[in-house]
Amino acid sequence: MDSHDAPESTPRQSAPSRHKDYFIGATPLQKRLESARKLTSFVPTPSRRKIPQCPQLQEDVEPQKVAFLLHKQWTLYSLTPMYKFSYTNLKEYSKLLSAFITAEKQKGLAVEVGEDFNIKVTFSALLGMKGTQRDPEAFLVQILSKSQLPSENREGKVLWSGWFCCVFGDSLLETVSEDFTCLPLFLAHGAVANTAIIGTWFQKTFDCSFSPLAINAFNLSWMAAMWTACKMDDYVATTEFLWSVPCSPQSLDISYAIHPEDAKALWDSVHKTPGEVTQEEVDLFMDCLYSHFYRHFKIHLSATRLVRVSTSVASAHTDGKIKILCHKYLIGVLAYLTELAIFQLE
Amino acid sequence: MDETVAEFIKRTLLKIPMTEMMTILKAWDFLSENQLQTVNFRSRKECLAQDLVLLCEENRISLNDAALLDMIYTQFHRHQKVWDVFQMAKQPGEDVDLSDMEQFKSSFKKILQRALKNVTVTFRDAEETAVWIRIAWGTQYKKPNQYKPVYVVYYSQTPYAFISSSQLKSNIPLLGQALTVASKHHQIMKMDLRSRYLDSLKTIVFKQYNQTFETHNSTASLQERRLGLDINVDPRIIHENRVEKDRVQRVTREIFGDYVQPRLEFAQYKLETKFKSDLNKGILAEREEPLRCLVKFSSPHLLEALKSLAPAGIADAPLSPLLTCIPSKGMNYFKIKDK
Amino acid sequence: MTSHCCKDAVRGDGEDVGGTGLEGIKSLLVGTEDALLQQLADSMLKEDCASMLKVHLAQSLPLPSNVNRPRIDLIVFVVNLHSKYSLRNVEESLRHVDATFFLGKVGFLATGAGRDSHCSVHRNTVLKLAQTYRSPLLFCDLEVEGLRATMAQRLVRMLQICAGHVPGVSAPSHPHTHSYRAPGLYPSDEFHLHLRLHLNKGSVAKNSLKITGLIHHVDSADELTQNN
């Protein structure tokens, strides 16, 4: 099978304090060798992961406060460490970003075409969105429309939200000096134009860079297995997979939904190691789904591309989109995503 | 002229793309050549629509005329609707009655009008003894909603009718009844077949496979594929699996035929079957209950996509009968259970 | 470890003596990605080579024809990282390869690494596979014409060495004689392919030198360096 005892990642030497410099200064040969090294070296990837449990740091995670994070589709990005970011300056950042957006709007890079309203930007800390105490605090940025009429609510409609977090980011935190704040996972919801403007401001202000975080089929399978493994009191959504078949000239999508109780029964039958999910179990779980499908349709799903996975815990799309449905496992989902983000930063 | 009728005509005109405007107006044949010549077709659509509405008023347009325009638009854009297929049956022993079309139409209209005081029914004859019917539903107290009509395409020499899928489902039983009685049938049944492509549905149901349908660059792709299938003439490349490849091509051709397939967008399977695997024998071995699954295949041209799977190595040949029976059984909704 | 099947679905020479030149060089590409294999074969044949090169394409092993088993100089197993099915197919096929082939006449080619978002097979899996079978692993996105052409050049060169057509160079003969780095002992920064340089044809030469080559993602001309 695919079991490989890949060695656990050895502590790296501290990376240069400015990630960017390394790549800018590199010669073409160095860059080529760097990418070559990546391809042919074993990449530390866990062959086993812990099944998400209820978060340990429960005191700060109030369901109401984080309810707005759930049932929303977030677009994922990885973010390099931010230079000289300070949690005490959040109010100032709000003002600066607000001014920046207004200036961009006037330049013609409109936030919303045709609409003319005042906007307000807020920065707020998101308590409890972390794995260990070492993880930096998560924070949220929102663009709100300021209501014109005084009679209406002060807080206008939320036009755009984005939040930065780091859950169990030890492997990255170790490599970075004090001047940097590591929040490698960025989630955005709202117009892409807004995300671009906000991204530009952060990049200019904190010397960091965003990259869209895609999720490949390999990781989607892991997510499917882990989330199916989570103990649920009741299921709010069916377990569903979506494959894109690389046939031409016509495209073909295959959606395969399975009753969540049946998916759980299948998983329980595959699962051997308590508390953990292993590579073999993920492979076997997927193989069972493939073989059940093959028995009926004589199509090899394993030759096609898994693009979307949906469970009662969360749903994820290969384009880097996530929707978290279950408050209980929010931290667990974020932990996996943080891992993917950190991996992409390397 | 009623304001609502004027608004209805205007909204219908605004739906029509400029490139089709002349064609559709001519097909409608309500405004004369002379009248059309007085209109500036280069003006902005809003203005054009206004001008045309004024002309319609001159001709004392009725609601039915306006409904006819809407119907013609829909005939040109039939893919915008999703069509369900219904099959009627006669009493066993009854002969096929070559019923009078006019009688059918008047009977159909009467039945609906008797049941709902307010309903707009419009007919337009089409090719091959088919008739298009447009129905705008009202209630005993409300006027018909012209913006949510249902369309029926009935082939009078056959027991089949195609009905556009609509959100107002409550009137479907009445519609079915009207169809059945007016066409002198005994009962009506909804088939598990649905698609946007009316002509493809027709060919599946009437088993006319060898025609050209709503092709989607398919002639080009057919040629491409033929070139791809040409065995590489370079003698220095030896295909070890030549025999198997030929078998796959042959079997695929036998199942799907050489012609372009009827166009469907999806096939859906509700599965309730036990998990059984040769390789993973222990898994779910004790479980009596089946796995409840819903599988949906979607594609701009489903049957063509399925046809390409085995030659591409993604599926076995022959493909599963669950997939290959779609045209022959005239179904794209299935419920599969263990025997 | 390698399952040493006694089936020899493909006939191979145990000794590292090349062909006589009259039979030509034969390579076998095994993989489920029919179109890619065809394109790669075309690219290989475009390469200007003195000897007669023949490329056999097979979906899997064992080969269907039992009658005329060709003498193969190099088998390349092609795995598409976007398709788990292609990996399984290669794993199955490997079981039908005669043990002698793994003394230098087998190579692995992984395609699709460039588009990580499409990958369902992890790189480590193919790396481990190649290491298990003590055979070189090459990465190349076969869909990209430039990369494919360069890879074709490399494969033809490898073929010539394996068939003994390059004077003074022959394929590695036995794993023990290499200083192969076992995974885990050293941080594996590079994947080494050792070729033994024979000064004259014979199984063990007195002045054998080791060549270190860096097998990496091909995006430029051949960088297999020779230290003389």
From TrEMBL, chain A:
Keywords: Centromere, Chromosome, Nucleus. Pfam families: CENP-L. Signal peptide: none annotated. Residues 1-22 are annotated as: Disordered. Its main location: nucleus. GO terms for cellular component: chromosome, centromeric region; nucleus. The keyword Nucleus applies. It is found in: Chromosome, Centromere; Nucleus. The keyword Cell inner membrane does not apply. InterPro entries: CENP-L. PANTHER family: CENTROMERE PROTEIN L. Belongs to the CENP-L/IML3 family. This is Centromere protein L.
UniProtKB/TrEMBL annotation, chain B:
Its main location: nucleus. InterPro entries: CENP-NAC/CAD_complex, Chl4/mis15/CENP-N. Keywords: Centromere, Chromosome, Nucleus. Transmembrane segments: none annotated. One of its GO terms (cellular component) is chromosome, centromeric region. It comes from the Eukaryota. One of its GO terms (biological process) is CENP-A containing chromatin assembly. Pfam families: CENP-N (PF05238). It is found in: Chromosome, Centromere; Nucleus. Belongs to the CENP-N/CHL4 family. This is Centromere protein N. It comes from Rousettus aegyptiacus (Egyptian fruit bat).
From TrEMBL, chain C:
Gene3D superfamilies: P-loop containing nucleotide triphosphate hydrolases (3.40.50.300). GO terms for cellular component: cytoplasm; kinetochore; nucleus. It is found in: Chromosome, Centromere, Kinetochore; Cytoplasm; Nucleus. It comes from the Eukaryota. Keywords: Centromere, Chromosome, Cytoplasm, Kinetochore, Nucleus. The keyword Nucleus applies. It comes from Rousettus aegyptiacus (Egyptian fruit bat). Component of the CENPA-NAC (nucleosome-associated) complex, a complex that plays a central role in assembly of kinetochore proteins, mitotic progression and chromosome segregation. The CENPA-NAC complex recruits the CENPA-CAD (nucleosome distal) complex and may be involved in incorporation of newly synthesized CENPA into centromeres. This is Centromere protein M. The keyword Cytoplasm applies. Component of the CENPA-NAC complex, at least composed of CENPA, CENPC, CENPH, CENPM, CENPN, CENPT and CENPU. The CENPA-NAC complex interacts with the CENPA-CAD complex, composed of CENPI, CENPK, CENPL, CENPO, CENPP, CENPQ, CENPR and CENPS. InterPro entries: Centromere_Cenp-M (IPR020987), P-loop_NTPase (IPR027417).
